[in-house]
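Exam prep: given the inputs below (a chain plus zinc ion), describe the expected output before reading on.
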Amino acid sequence: MKPDQLLRPMPAGLYCPAGDFYIDPVRPVARALITHGHSDHARAGHGAVLATRETLDIMGIRYGEDFCGSMQAAAFGERIDLNGVTVSFHPAGHVLGSAQIAVEKDGLRIVASGDYKRGADPTCAAYEPIACDVFITEATFGLPVFHHPQPKAEMGKLLTSLRQFPERSHLVGAYSLGKSQRVIRLLRDCGYDAPIYIHGSLARLCDYYVSRGIDLGDLRPATLEKGDPTDFRGAVIVGPPSAFADRWARRFNEPLIAFASGWMMVRQRAKQGGVELPLVISDHCDWPELTETIRELAPNEVWVTHGREEALVRWCELAGVPAKPLHLVGYEDEGD
Ligand SMILES: [Zn+2]
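Solution:
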């Protein structure tokens, strides 16, 4: 069997004809395997959904319990037969519940990474390398200029700012699934034990992380109904970046806007967003992680998807690994 007979790009997403399922489809399909809960990968409206317990729970929180016709939870490493095709889920280190999906038939194994990273992150299971014939890698930060710094060093910048500007409310923009919980956990790991205030839209996902054993410390709602803006003097408030553009943000005392994202490496993006304190914290591989992962796995072939496909394809070819871009559309990660 040739690899593109086992999995092929279709308008709805990566499709396995033999197993009759899609991976992370962008349109409603009869059977979907979902790598993780970010909204560009996990959409509502499919028939049957197979994903990790955490991803199913996260989809239920975001879309309501009836987000699909039927669901099945896959444990990491469990081998599941779908019409003669064996599929298994393996940790991707991206956000809680995130998985790579291995698809096997007749001795051929393709691993679809979903989104992944190699750096330490106590809020989810660490990426596991899975030997494969074809590795499908994301390439969100697939350019040699992308080198992500140590997350704790970035958090140090926030802690320094809190000491320098003790009057100002520090508003940290972070996407609601994954990044905000990671930022909170990083602050705790850097010794910050004061209450952290969260925007209402983060509450259910933070509660869910805590229910799965991820200690986020003292979290409180960032609401001003009873108090006045000076209540939040010198406090850390975490919220989705979208909230910082509206009235919600203007209630705080001399707000200082920070934003935690891999894109904060690009100075122009920080400037455009009015970000005073960019924090380069990414849940995706940077260029060294992408290339080291391909070296480590040494697959026969690499397929590159969402992001900067061409540069990584070129790197693979120079390294002697056949590679091609998949040109899948509809993936703009909400959790960069
Ligand atoms: Zn993602």
